[in-house]
Structure to design on (735 residues):
């Protein structure tokens, strides 16, 4: 086993993630192979030392934040072995660029894709705008190498059975995009996708690729009426290609539908030209095509659908798309400015609900009386409401509102976490969603594989010692 | 006022450039093309004057074959009112001076009184054509402009002069302005604009139509000849220092002092 790094100056760079929750750790390991990962995990299990897996620390749920013990970084597992075969520590965006150069596509596109690792994306079953068409990361993984807490190295694909003596939780996921709890899997691979570094450490993955589209048309359509906007979303996704379903001939068939609410537009007006004054909401839409962008069809639909059609802006190439995405990128920048100005953290939701529950969920968001902005993946009924409290009292109220909205999402048949995962910050919400029986099932599985709750302690489930969820 | 915008297509800025042949230049088969980014600032400057009704027309001028038309249509979609593609067998192989003669003749033929161009194109990075066009026309030229005020009779232009100082240049019209980053924020193309651009006609004009002497342009008139194309020398491989900590520190210090010469 390589000697650990204990220099506080080095460790300091690994103690938090995008959640900004502070952590603490005694030592850092940066293994270069699955075998070295196995040595670290076997030693940790033998000594009862907690190990937190850290990749690129883009988690918003404190999943990569250590609560003591050791850190295991995947950053040195960084070889792309073949176009469809890469180590877990490879940067997702860099891997996708190599795939794209060969005319192929690895679709998962979390917002952090240029900053996050492939293994991190698999471990939390990441998704993004294109998940509307392609689904989350799960269907794009064919196999992984994974190291269990006791140091066993397994190769898992969808033909690999789950060992018969593993107690599996019996539960059903909500029928929406979700990244909450252990997947009700019938094979070892699917169990290891989305387990947030609590059941094993993914070291290498074999991926499924598809042909890149000949062209992608991107547009931002503005609306001055919220009902018209929602009606247009229904129309755009009607008959569209979705995971496991082909497009209906003649459908508008977008690949992604993203939403910017009124406060989000206000936030970007100062940074982005061409946002019409009358707009109260906007849709960022991506349309894949075979070389001839379907401009006329979308123009007709936008005019017919009550959009501010004349103001619709478009991009026909990657550079133009990046410019349009400036709207998207201006939102977190604006939120962060507000957070710094307020001196209070934001409280952000990650709920998704079924199609017919989008309107009531948006109404609930609209009714929140606090500084806020709303944006996100409306095609999947998955919006992020960011509450921006200005005082400690408002922060407490924001947290209460957050919990209340989570319960409402669950009551509507949705999930408490559609893409960010549970990590350490959403354990209470997971319990609300899955109920005590499923939660006990998760705990039994975890205890069977990792009796000391050594690996990823505090993620998804409370650990035996550190029971309190960190505050934020 | 009729404004001309010199529009050039260049390989996308993230292209991986490969040498096709040391005598012929780079391989262009797999290259994606885009409007030269500095030309986008030029176009936006012209469109802002059109919006403000200081200009009556914005004409795009591009030297190139039919493969440039998508970029020209992008410019029309943003709001340019007309476009001329300058294409003639005699133009092939022109150097910067030849291209400038073609563009200067077209500017004159179109009755243009103010020209906006990118300060340079990001392919060859020559930064010669805008100034040469101005010289051939006998007009004033201000380059690297990042702030501009245009009135009916002249323009006041600002540019960085180094060390935080600013040049302020006043120029009478007609003139050529070389545009730099920071001058404006180029607008997005609109869906409506793209659809309308598909219906706009791109005029194609050769040497005769713009009144340029075919013998003054093209490969035979070029004063610059390309002799060889090559890639920059490869970076030397990294080296992992061996031994215990003391030996590696000693070797590192020696390398920084004797090889890299930074300490």
């Amino acid at each position: 086993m390589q000697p650990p790094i204990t220099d506080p100056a080095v460790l300091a760079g690994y103690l938090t993630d995008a959640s900004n929750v502070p952590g603490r750790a005694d030592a850092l390991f940066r293994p270069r192979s699955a075998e070295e990962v196995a040595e670290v995990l076997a030693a940790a299990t033998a000594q009862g030392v907690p190990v937190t897996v850290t990749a690129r620390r883009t988690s918003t749920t404190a999943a990569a934040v250590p609560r003591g013990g050791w850190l295991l970084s995947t950053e040195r597992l960084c070889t792309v072995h073949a176009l469809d075969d890469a180590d877990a520590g490879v940067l997702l965006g860099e891997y996708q660029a190599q795939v794209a150069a060969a005319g192929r596509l690895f679709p998962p596109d979390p917002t952090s894709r240029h900053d996050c690792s492939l293994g991190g994306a698999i471990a939390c079953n990441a998704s993004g705008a294109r998940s509307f068409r392609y689904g989350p990361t799960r269907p794009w993984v064919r196999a992984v190498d994974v190291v269990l807490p006791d140091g066993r190295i397994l190769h898992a694909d969808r033909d690999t059975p789950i060992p018969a003596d593993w107690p599996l939780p019996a539960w059903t996921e909500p029928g929406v995009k979700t990244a909450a709890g252990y997947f009700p899997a019938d094979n070892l691979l699917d169990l290891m996708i989305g387990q947030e570094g609590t059941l094993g450490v993914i070291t290498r993955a074999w991926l499924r690729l598809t042909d890149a589209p000949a062209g992608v048309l991107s547009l931002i359509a503005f609306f001055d009426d919220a009902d018209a906007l929602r009606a247009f979303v229904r129309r755009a996704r009607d008959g569209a290609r979705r995971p496991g379903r082909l497009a209906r001939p003649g459908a508008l068939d977008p690949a992604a539908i993203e939403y910017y609410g009124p406060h989000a537009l206000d936030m970007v007006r100062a940074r982005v030209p061409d946002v019409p004054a009358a707009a109260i909401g906007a849709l960022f839409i991506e349309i894949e095509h075979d070389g001839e962008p379907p401009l006329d069809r979308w123009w007709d639909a936008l005019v017919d659908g009550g959009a501010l059609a004349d103001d619709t802006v478009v991009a026909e190439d990657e550079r133009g798309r990046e410019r349009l995405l400036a709207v998207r990128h201006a939102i977190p920048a604006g939120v962060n400015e507000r957070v710094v100005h307020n001196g209070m953290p934001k409280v952000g939701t990650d709920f998704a609900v079924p199609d017919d529950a989008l309107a009531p969920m948006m109404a609930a968001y609209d009714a929140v009386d606090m500084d806020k902005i709303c944006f996100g993946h409306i095609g999947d009924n998955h919006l992020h409401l960011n509450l921006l409290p200005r005082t400690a009292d408002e922060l407490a109220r924001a947290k209460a509102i957050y919990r209340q909205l989570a319960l409402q999402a669950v009551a509507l048949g949705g999930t408490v976490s559609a893409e960010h995962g549970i990590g350490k910050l959403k354990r209470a919400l997971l319990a609300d969603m899955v109920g005590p029986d499923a939660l006990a099932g998760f705990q039994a599985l975890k205890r069977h594989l990792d009796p000391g709750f050594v690996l990823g302690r505090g993620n998804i489930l409370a650990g035996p010692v550190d029971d309190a969820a960190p505050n934020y | 006022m009729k404004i001309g915008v010199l529009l050039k297509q260049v390989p996308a800025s993230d292209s991986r450039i490969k040498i096709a042949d040391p005598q012929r230049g780079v391989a262009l088969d797999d290259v994606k093309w885009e409007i030269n980014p500095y030309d986008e600032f030029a176009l936006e400057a012209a469109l802002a004057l059109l919006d403000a009704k200081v200009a009556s027309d914005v004409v795009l001028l591009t030297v190139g074959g039919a493969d440039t038309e998508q970029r020209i249509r992008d410019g029309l979609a943003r709001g340019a009112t007309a476009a001329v593609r300058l294409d003639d067998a005699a133009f092939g192989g022109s150097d910067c001076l030849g291209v400038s003669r073609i563009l200067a003749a077209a500017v004159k033929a179109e009755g243009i009184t103010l020209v906006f161009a990118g300060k340079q194109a990001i392919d060859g990075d020559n930064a010669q054509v805008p100034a040469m066009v101005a010289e051939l026309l006998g007009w004033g030229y201000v380059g690297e402009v990042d702030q501009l005020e245009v009135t009916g009779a002249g323009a006041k232009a600002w540019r960085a002069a180094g060390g935080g100082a600013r040049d302020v240049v006043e120029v009478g019209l007609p003139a050529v302005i070389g545009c730099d980053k920071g001058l404006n924020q180029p607008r997005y193309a609109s869906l409506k604009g793209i659809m309308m651009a598909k219906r706009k006609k791109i005029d194609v004009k050769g040497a005769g139509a713009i009144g340029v002497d075919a013998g003054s342009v093209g490969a035979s008139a070029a004063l610059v000849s390309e002799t060889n194309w090559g890639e920059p020398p490869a970076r030397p491989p990294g080296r992992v220092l061996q031994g215990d900590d003391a030996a590696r520190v000693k070797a590192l210090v020696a390398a920084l002092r004797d090889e890299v010469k930074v300490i």
Observations:
- The radius of gyration of chain B is 23 Å.
- Helices of chain B lie at 37-51, 69-78, 96-110, 129-137, 191-199, 207-210, 245-259.
- The domain at 2-221 of chain B is CATH 3.40.50.620 (Rossmann fold).
- The mean pLDDT of chain B is 94.
